[in-house]
Amino acid sequence: MMDLAAVVKKYLELTGGFDLPLHLAQFGLPKPEIERLFSAWDEDYQISRFLLLSRAGDEKLGAFPPDMRVFSINNYEYTHVSVRPGIEQLLARA
Q: What's the pLDDT tens digit per position in 33-54?
């Protein structure tokens, strides 16, 4: 299980910076865990304002296994997350 700080660290390692979309499967976690973690963070205002969830079109998802293309987060379909700068201050207060 990853906490928010570990997810942000991995996000930055994979994208090289903030505000860049990253497919949720690239975190390397089981699908149920990704859905659970991001659903909880999506409900927390202090966290969710730094996480932008989005859904790419199906034609862009062919590189991912069919069962890892789309994730259900609070009953909405998402494929990517972008982390906004400023989350570091939130993590520093934790």
A: 999 999 999 999 999 999 999 9
